Amino acid sequence: MREFAKASFTLRQAPRPLRLIYAAFLLLVAVGIATELGFQIERIGLTPARVAAYYRGGEDGAVMTFPKTFGQLLEVTHAHAFMMAVIFLILAHLFAATSASNTLRALVLGLTFAGMVGNLAAPWLTRYGAPSGAWLLLSSWAAQGVGSVLMVAVSIWECLAPS
User: Fold this and answer.
1) Which residues does 119 contact at the CB level (< 8 Å), separation at least 6?
2) What is the Cα Rg of the chain in Å?
3) Are 26 and 156 in contact (CB under 8 A)?
4) Is 42 exposed, middle or buried (0-12, 13-18, 19+ CB in 10 A)?
5) Most-buried pick from 17, 41, 145, 147 (CB within 10 A)?
6) Which residues of 44-73 are buried (b: 16+ CB within 10 A; e: fewer)?
7) At residue 58, what are phi and psi to the nearest 5 degrees?
């Protein structure tokens, strides 16, 4: 933490043991991103109809689902809001310490944050608003996923590249 707090901190110039610790963390985050995608594909689906059925209830092939209750959405939102905030904070700090341009950093951070906000809001909009809220959720997943993968990839590159 002492190294990270320096104004001139960059990942490429960090001590090698510290870069390896960050790289290990980033690899675990990459596994988390991959399993999140697997969950979205397997449990929810990647079409607006399947997303709407997951939150609003309905039939999808041979499976009948019930609408998510207020309590279920509240529980998921509560857990996700805290975890997403912590992961975003750490990834954003690591990404900010890369040699990526200020423009790229701003775009990736903005995209990822917007995706996370949509990821929290869209289930509620889909369940209690209109089925078309599923489009917002799918867009949010894409934005969060692309942004997170870019932050991880650029940061891990700088952690493992020769200094």
Assistant:
1) 80, 84, 137, 140, 141, 144
2) 18
3) yes
4) exposed
5) 147
6) bbeebebbbbbbbebeeeeeeeeebeeeeb
7) 150, -170
Question: Which pLDDT score, from 0 to 100, does residue 62 have?
Answer: 72
pTM, two decimals, is 0.89
Is residue 116 classed exposed, middle or buried when 0-12, 13-18 and 19+ CB atoms within 10 A define those classes?
Answer: buried
Average pLDDT, the chain: 92
* Residue 134 token pair: 């599923």
User: Using CA atoms in the order 29, 113, 140, 10, what is the torsion angle rounded to 10 degrees?
Assistant: -40
Nearest alpha-carbon partner for 15 in 131, 23, 7: 23
Rounded Cα distance, 95 and 158, in Å: 9
pLDDT exceeds cutoff 90 at 70: yes
Using CA atoms, how far residue 154 sits from 13, 58, 142, in Å, is 15, 41, 18
Share of the chain above pLDDT 90, in %: 81
- Work out whether the CA dihedral 104, 105, 110, 116 comes out positive or negative: positive
* pLDDT higher than 60, residue 2: no
Q: How far is CA 85 from CA 114, 116, 120, in A?
A: 12, 9, 11
Whether the predicted pLDDT of 145 surpasses 80: yes
